[in-house]
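Forwarding the complex inputs:
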Amino acid sequence: MQFKKWLIIATCICFILGLSGPGMVKAEKPIKIAAIGPMDFDFGKLIWYGAEIAAETINKAGGINVGGKKRPVEVISINSNELVNITDAIQACNKAILINKVDCIVGAFRSEAALAMQEIAMDHKTIFIASGPSSPKLNMRVKQNYDRYKYWFRVNFNQAYANPFFGAHVKYIAEIIKKDLGIEKLTGAIIADKVAWGDGAVKGFSKMLPALGIELVKVIRVSPKATDVTAEMTALKESKAHIVIQFLTGPSGAVVGRQWGELKIPTVLTGINVLAQSKALWEATGGKGEYITSGTLFARFAATPTTLAFYDKFEKKYGEFPAHGGFSHEAVMVYKKAVERAGTIDSDAVVKALEQTDYTGASYRIVFRGKEDPFPHDVKTGPGYATVPLVQWIKGQQIAIWPYQEGNPAKGIQRFVIPPWMVKYYKK
Amino acid sequence: MQILLSGIQVGTAYALLAIGFSLIWGVARVLNFTYVVLYMIAAYLVYVLNTLAGINYVLAGLLSILITVFLGVTAYKLFLERVRGHHIVVIMVSLVLALFMAEWIFFIFSNKIRYVAPIVEGFVVIGGIQVLKQNIFAMGVIFLVIISMWLFLAKTRLGVAIKATAQDMEVVNLMGVDEKKITTIVMGIGTALAAICGVVISPLWAVEPHMWMNPLIVVLAAVILGGLGSFKGSIIGAYILAFTEVIVTFVLPNGAFVKGAFALLLMVLVLLVRPEGLFGVAFEEERL
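Prediction (whole assembly, two chains):
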């Protein structure tokens, strides 16, 4: 009995010593980052994957250095359901801030939802680094009321700045069509979802096409939920446009791509087809979407020294191309760098640090526009800064085709291929 | 020519859906929202059996129809039959059932757009216009089904019993016809029509979890426009709506996203002039 008593006491002493011994490190409180997006959809899952892979990279290196102490990153998946219901997105954002008590939010996809979530985040002075929505209004608010909206940043493209890149894509394709098919006067059409960002894109392109010497012959607006576009495709074919610029985010992207390939409509499809940014296009069209081109967020070419390695790592881990996931990754990394510069996670200090960002990650060189810009806290664009690559689906592979330099394309970039049926049609 | 062909393509699918819906409404007096969800379920079943399991399309289609009919009739017997006669309750129950089924489809398949290979690849040129062979196949099957249904209703004993039940359920009961059995058969036939549509349309339209929503509006509108319980009216109503959508897309491509609204507006205008629909009976009491 005596022996048992002493055994118990000795065990307790050893246990307490073990807990407080030199080998025992007190865990630092994690920095919480919410990855918010429509998690029931591929777009949302990619946002989560990107944030997750960034957190893994950061934590492998020991965490974020906050004033000399390394703190781990914890990413939390928040389902905004924004593609179905904007109200759900508002509630999701509230939950992230009030219940999950996150220090930063990254992600968002649809601009309408982002506009609503932005208000919630700004109410609570929570840093929000968007990686998907493209409406210019989001950053116009920063200009209009800096003190309230300064916590908002965006690493993906503002529509206003994206349009010139889409114009460059169209110009590149147009030049190849003119050269290879001998067509001097080109015509163009636009098919776009009836959503906020589509409105800006249509407006911009309606002016841009004539400026590029392309006659605009048709503009078709489809419901983003459309699953049948028979009439629309017929109208498109009837227009005899050489180039069709798509701005499609919903299932219409799959049907347009499939029917275009099945009917062998002699036109080039370019613009943005969000489905074409991922492997989903090939599956959804049964391969009929071959030769579709689309601007994308991430393409597999050497945009930066780390692009190819990141792209391959992401694809290997998740079986999908980075797309929006690449930008949520950048958002987390940019936040990490800012916190380390600020030495604190206090929002006001981090905002100042974010404004000093000059970060070249896997996507492009990220530098945020200043207060004097019409769209503060958007990324700078142009040579040496952010760019929108163009990809084309060929033989089941998504190939980067722009930025293309004749005779000296960057590693991973190939020349645009005109659909063979279009070549046959015009060479007749 | 473009408008004509597009209108026929779209209208034919709507017509088949409208007939089944009209039949169920006209005979069973059930506003069955699960109907269009069952059309979606049939499309997904074809995807599972044909694309994933590799079963021949025709066999996969037949199996899909059988399974869908089973689901439809079971759902009716378990949930809707007992509340028949209480119209608001029927609407609520069928709506909840429809949403429940649709959510399960979303849960199982997520939002990915699924591909079903066409039974016939390629296209033909008709009057200078390219038409997918699958479209011609689908229209052919649907026309065949519509004609078969018309002959069935007009020439067979069961068909006559169904029409009689639609006209006056009480008298039919008094004549010794089991109206419950007739209603169940009609539910099966109606569901089969929706399933056939889902099977033949799946290689043409996007198979995704919200594909049932647009047809719901169109089917309701077609049936009301054509006249409740009118076989002929449902078909004509469906084509009118389809052509309206197509014409809007051609004439006002910038407003193609509201083509459905234009079609519904046309329906409202017709109803203002003829509240019973184009071929419906003038007084509701005559149908009781």
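The longest strand of chain B covers residues 123-126.
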